[in-house]
From TrEMBL:
GO terms for molecular function: phosphorelay response regulator activity; transcription cis-regulatory region binding. One of its GO terms (cellular component) is protein-DNA complex. The modification 4-aspartylphosphate is found at residue 55. This is Chemotaxis protein CheY. It comes from the Bacteria. SUPFAM superfamilies: C-terminal effector domain of the bipartite response regulators, CheY-like. SMART domains: REC, Trans_reg_C. InterPro entries: CheY-like_superfamily, OmpR/PhoB-type_DNA-bd, Sig_transdc_resp-reg_C-effctor, Sig_transdc_resp-reg_receiver, WalR-like, WH-like_DNA-bd_sf. Residues 6-119 form the Response regulatory domain. The lineage of its organism: Bacteria, Bacillati, Actinomycetota, Actinomycetes, Pseudonocardiales. The keyword DNA damage does not apply. GO terms for biological process: regulation of DNA-templated transcription. Keywords: DNA-binding, Phosphoprotein, Transcription, Transcription regulation, Two-component regulatory system.
Length: 230
């Protein structure tokens, strides 16, 4: 599975942009640079990249707002750049649908490895038969079309959210730890387990009648999560 692609790097620091560009190009990627959120959104609208490296602290339109706007129209993978101590921003970014994050100061080599890993995961989703459908009461997942419909209304799910929901529903009744979900759903060989927690929270907000009292995606204390059919 290819780990190379067109990467958009968004950072207001010219030195950071140049260093990241050189390491990504050494890894075989085509790289486009943007110094602010407005330029980044314009580039994405004109020619969507395969992955975006996005600094959260940007002038004008900040990184969180850039991520939010991108997620309104695209599931392109996003790797966030955050400063030490910005845990709330990292969580907010993950809630908006970012795929991974790297904390500043960071190793450019590590960032290049993470970019390759995220691209590999994004491209490793196996194709489903065009007519394969999984249902649970008023929830229908069309796997080939990658479409989720709840009570007749199509849900807006990111790639990660859809993959997690499909895995949990097709393995209903079985509890999985966060580590297992990272590995079995997204193929992550490293990663923050809070990513799973954030994606579960987002799914509950979209499929549960009362996200505070979920009946479909249950928390199994001391283990992780389990899907219970309606």
């Amino acid at each position: 599975m290819s780990e190379q692609g067109h990467v958009l790097v968004v950072d207001d620091d010219e030195t950071v942009r140049d260093v990241v560009r050189r390491y990504l190009e050494l890894a075989g990627h085509e790289v486009t640079l943007a110094g602010d959120g407005e330029h980044a959104l314009d580039l994405v609208a004109r020619s969507e990249p395969d992955l975006i490296v996005l600094d959260l602290m940007l002038p004008g339109i900040d990184g969180l707002e850039v991520c939010r706007r991108i997620r309104q129209r695209s599931a392109v993978p996003v790797v966030m750049l955050t400063a030490l101590g910005e845990e709330e921003n990292r969580i907010a970014g993950l809630r908006l649908g970012a795929d991974d994050y790297v904390t500043k100061p960071f190793s450019p080599r590590e960032l290049a490895l993470r970019v390759g890993s995220v691209l590999r995961r994004a491209r490793a989703v196996p194709a489903a038969p065009a007519n394969q459908v999984v249902t649970d009461g008023d929830l229908t997942l069309a796997l080939g079309a990658r479409q989720a419909v709840l009570r007749g209304t199509e849900l807006s799910l990111t790639t990660r959210e859809f993959d997690l929901l499909v895995f949990l529903l097709t393995n209903a009744g079985t509890a999985f730890s966060r580590v297992e979900l990272l590995a079995r759903v997204w193929g992550w060989d490293f990663g923050d387990q809070s990513t799973v927690t954030v994606h579960v929270r987002r799914l509950r907000e979209k499929i549960e009648a009362n996200p505070a009292k979920p009946v479909r995606i249950a928390t199994v204390w001391g283990v992780g999560y389990r899907y219970d059919r309606a």
